[in-house]
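Posting this for the archive.
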Amino acid sequence: MAEVTLENVRKMYDGVEAVRDLSLAVGDGEFVVLVGPSGCGKSTTLRMIAGLEEITSGTIRIGDRVVNNVHPKDRDIAMVFQNYALYPHMTVEQNMAFALKLRKTPRAEIQRRVGEAARMLGIEGLLKRRPRQLSGGQRQRVAVGRAIVREPKAFLFDEPLSNLDAKLRVTTRAELKALHQRLKTTTVYVTHDQEEAMTLGDRIVVMADGVMQQQGTPFEVYQRPANRFVASFIGTPPMNFVEGTLAREGGAVAFKGREGAISLLCAEAHGAALGGAAGSAVTLGVRPQALSLVDAGLPGRTIEATLRVVELLGDEMDLTCEAGGQRLVARVRARPGLAPGQRVLLAPDAARMHYFRPGEYGASLLHPVHATAAA
């Protein structure tokens, strides 16, 4: 195992900057997930670590060795691709053993490693089959097994679950997490699925437009988003945003929505951070889980809204509401009797509200120390 370190790494494609000044250290045995929308630079970053893409500038280290000019096969890493890249004419056993045979590994050692990996992944009974005889989940396990037998310094995963159906993604995700806890191999994993990132990663790196927007534990990134983009990308359903201004009301600070339908007192604990921005335009962010239904209104504490859509999710339900032309989604405990067109009262938890400077990458006013350079 080894650390994987990127220092000021940059990648240009025909004058377009795909990755901009990226610095990242993946600790020995750590599971780090790069997450972001299509075109954010996450797969390009993974391919540069693997040596499948040349870097434009910067330094990449695996362990103590600079690998900028080292051939992919000599970097001692193993990569699992989105399409699994199995040889169709070979059996599962032959696919898993192929890289070891190229290295002229002794036959007994190959058999030991393949057998051990097969037992670990529960595919002992598939070793004589060919890829066309396997399901998508089985092929994915074979691809992981082929990586495991190499005993590399680091694993690289490029959206390996994207071809699986929703139910199989959940179970395979849990298997990958358990596998990492057992092997403790340094892992860099790429996905566009924020739920996958949150459940798998020891640490997640949120990217957009080639820039690392924030890195931290899943809990830190969810609870303390560095900017509006991170807040909008991480969390299901997505965070609600309301444009407005901050104003002083006596000794307190209040948020005033543009249309006047939303007026909320800020949490007392946030007063010091927000007081200096009084009179400035801000974006209020509130997660659907921080909105609750109440029976009585209270000035500065509740929002009067019209219910538009009710989505039952079992024990919970998502309520899409409208307040003064502003769309708000609340995730609440399921209850009977709610129907579109009904007037409801929403109470946001002031302690869980977020405030950002205007713009798609507007920095958090509450957690500026966590912010990175915006795109």
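The first strand starts at residue 4 and ends at 13. Residues 166-183 form the longest helix (18 residues).
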